[in-house]
Amino acid sequence: MTEMTPAMIHGLAGIAVFGIGLMGALAATDRLRRLVALKLCAVGAGFVLVAAAWRTPPAAPDPVPHALVITGIVVMISAAAVALAIIRRLHSLEAETDE
Amino acid sequence: MLDMLGIVLMGLGTAFFVAGTVGLLRFPDVYCRLHALTKADGMGLALICLGAACTADAWGEAVRILLIWVFVALSGATAGHLIARHARRAGTPMQEGRQ
Amino acid sequence: MTEPLLVFDLLLAGVVVAVAALTLLVRDAFAMIVAFVVFGIFVAIAFVRLAAPDVALAEAAIGTGVTGALMLRALAHLRGGSLSGKDPAPLSGPTRATTLGIDGTLAVCVTVALGIAFFGAPQAGPGIEAEVAAALPQSGVAHPVTAVLLNFRSYDTLMEIVVLLAAVIVVWQVDRGLSGASDPLTGEVYQGFARVILPVAVTVGGYLLWIGAAAPGGAFQAGAVLAAVAVLVLLSRLYTPAAAHRHLIRATFVAGTVVFAAVALGVAGAGRTAFEYPPGHAKSLILLIESALTISIAVTLGALFHGREPASPLRKETR
């Protein structure tokens, strides 16, 4: 084991968050919770990328993964918005069939 | 000298945050908790911002930190008001006078 | 060597993981969303510790702020117009233990694979930051992340805007025929707050856009701050989307994509390929693209929050 760095600590946290999100997405019983779990997965993956881009100061971090993660955040909110619209729609359709 | 003052102010601010958190955990109903949070944390944030501004390198930095304080205080007060208002409309009961 | 900041990192990482677990373990859906927002803020702080202020800004503004607003809005819909209602029944009963076991094994396998990939890679090894630093003077901007987003990998960024555009088209189509959620009653204090904060938020958005060329910031962060302005305006009813404004709104949706694509194709020719900005004009071109992107992103995120396309009065009765 080498010396402990912020990258290692937060990289490990990112992996743990990814695992929690994945387990949550698989085990969730309602749709909203599954979506939140998938968001956790995405954030965990971003965490790992940003941690991998970290360099020992004073060296600046690698900007390419940072740009990738920013792109990922915007893509994830697009996906979340579509998922939420579909969840709402399914809910109102189910409410209609129940009546 | 200014650095020492900043550290003392930030330490004081942390004490206020601890008090606010104890209030959040120990107070009986939503209104009391909000009272503890908005008052104590508002004061704590003010002290921490003042302390951080004392340790800032440049004037511009200090002004920005103080602006952050102004806006967080504004939005914190508004959010507290909205939560209390919503709780009252939803009929959340107040705890009767307890010893 | 024990740095005090390393202790802070350990605490922060622990809190991030604990709040992530709490998000999924808490029963009430409203509490779940609140926990998710708290999680996002802690993640943003962790990104700052990892020397990634751009990502922290984007995570706090878009990944947490706007996403949280979207989720609360959807929850209010599901609970019949108010956040304090009851949750809809879950889709299925409790999952069987065997299924859970298989799920757990699978999740652990994938996570361990990710861990092996992360720790197997050379730690803090050289990536491609040297190439980026070498090419930075020709990119037209001084901030490496903006250079990567808007110049070196601008094709990705264009596609990202197309994804956002596709999302708003899908949301408008799916929401067609849904009854609009009633806006929460906000009261005078909120109205006053909105009036004070609006000009400030617009200024901050413009500042983030402009500073993005030299320091952390840029089109996405600025767009998210302006999207918060849109949410404020919608919630305080300073503006109600009207059917007559649909064409303008649609034009704003595509403005970012159109300007970006037009510039990218326009610089082609005379020995240059698409996306290869002439070095002399790179900064003005990038700022032009970023301004269009900022407005597009802000309006698109605001529309995603509002949900339904503003309908004409005639079709209002159809549910």
How is this structure best described in words?
Helix content of chain A is 82%, strand content 0%. Chain A has helices at residues 6-27, 31-53, 63-98. By secondary structure, chain A is mainly α. The model of chain B has no long low-confidence stretch (mean pLDDT 85). In chain C, helix 3 (53-78) packs parallel to helix 9 and helix 3 runs parallel beside helix 11 (282-306). Chain C has eleven helices and no strands. Chain C is an all-alpha fold and 319 residues long. Chain C is globular. Chain C is 70% helix and 0% strand. Classes of the chains: A mainly alpha (99), B mainly alpha (99), C mainly alpha (319). Chains A and C meet through helix 1, helix 2 and helix 3 of A and helix 1, helix 2, helix 3, helix 4 and helix 5 of C.
Strands, helices and their partners?
The complex is a heterotrimer of chains A (99), B (99) and C (319).
Chain A: H1 6-27, H2 31-53, H3 63-98
Helix pairs in contact in A: 1-2, 2-3
Chain B: H1 2-26, H2 30-55, H3 59-89
Helix pairs in contact in B: 1-2, 2-3
Chain C: H1 4-25, H2 29-49, H3 53-78, H4 97-120, H5 129-139, H6 144-152, H7 154-175, H8 187-211, H9 219-235, H10 246-266, H11 282-306
Helix pairs in contact in C: 1-2, 2-3, 3-9, 3-11, 5-6, 6-7, 7-10, 7-11, 8-9, 9-11, 10-11
The pLDDT mean of chain B sits at: 85
Largest interface: A-C, 79 and 96 residues
Question: Could you tell me how far the N terminus lies from the C terminus of chain B, measured between alpha carbons in angstroms?
Answer: 46 Å
- Inertia-based shape of chain A: elongated
Quaternary: heterotrimer
Radius of gyration of chain A: 18 Å
Radius of gyration of chain B: 16 Å
